[in-house]
Amino acid sequence: MVDEELRVLRDIVVQDYSELSICDLCIERSGRYDMVFLKLNDKFHEMMLKITEIKRSQIFNKLWAKYGEKLKDEVVTMEIIFNKIWSRICDKLKSINQKFLDGKMQLKKVDKFLNMFNKTDYDALEEEFMLLSRYFNSQTQLGEATKKLGVSIKKVKSYKQLFDAWQAAQAIEELQKVMGLEGDFSEVQNIKEIIGGKFERQAINSVSDNLVRAGELLKDIDPKRRSCLTTFTECFDLVTWLRESIK
Fold first, then answer.
1. What is the pLDDT of residues 197-246, one digit of tens each?
2. What is the DSSP track for 116-132?
3. Comparing C-alpha atoms, which of 232, 243, 4, 203 is closest to residue 101?
4. Looking at the record's lineage, which domain of life comes first (predicted)?
5. Mind listing the pLDDT tens digit for each residue in 136-165?
6. Cα atoms in the 13 Å half-sphere on the side-chain side of 69
7. Vertex 103, ends 102 and 104: CA angle to 5°?
8. What is the CB-side half-sphere exposure of residue 240 using CA atoms within 13 A?
């Protein structure tokens, strides 16, 4: 539900303004042109301008839908939108962006954002946080923010590779136990212990060079090959039975 002010605004937006004069659309103020067509006060007008800057953000759109859903049974005014949706989203977005840049965001949280971009689209993830960084940083601050973003993206990529390595180490260890394989499996065990099954609960900054080097040892065991190892291990009793049966 919306109040009269929002109904008027909605009617203005849908009308045909192609035949209006320039003075009906905007006025000159202090060397710039401000839109008067929407008949908003300065606070709400500024909010509208800011929304146009940030509306391409996937995280923004998700938060907008989330906070908007909470107000579905209320009579919504521009003041309510400003205080209960827009202001809260700005605070949340700023916190999210800063945690990512500083490497303090939990990797589990990073996974949720990656899932918004087809899980492995790191370019889209970087573009998202670049958009937020431009929004929340001045031109003088943007250079440092861009450097931090590059470091965090690199660590996120390494984390995903490390998680795959941990799963590969698990698959190899299970195969060793089931088949009674002999040999030096110490590196596999070390990787499993170093990375650990709860790695996604740690922050971006926890992805160290030592962990990356450990993960490199198992980088060739991709998810498809890992699945084959797991399937073979699970079917080993059947394989043994077949061997015995055809002797």
1. 566 678 888 887 877 776 776 666 667 776 776 776 777 666 565 556 66
2. TTTTT-HHHHHHHHHHH
3. 203
4. Eukaryota
5. 998 899 999 999 999 999 999 888 877 777
6. 6
7. 90
8. 8
